[in-house]
Design brief:
- By secondary structure, this protein is mainly alpha-helical.
- 65% of the residues lie in helices and 0% in strands.
- The protein has four helices and no strands.
- The chain starts with a helix and ends in a 5-residue tail after the last helix.
Length: 74
Amino acid sequence: MNLAARKYKFIQELTTVDESLLEKLEIILKTSKKDWFADLNSEEKLEIEIGLKQAENDDFISHETVMNKFAKWH
């Protein structure tokens, strides 16, 4: 079934849902379009940008290295 057919079928099914389910679906649609990055404060955004730049420059310690270092406590 292609995307257009799936959407059409979904629209048909929406005509039979109750108020409670419709409200839940509306919440899902609203939150799926929301950009979580926009909700961060400037300090959080800066920290993420610093981390991304470090990763681009290979300036990081891999997860595997960290896990090996602390394996004795696990």
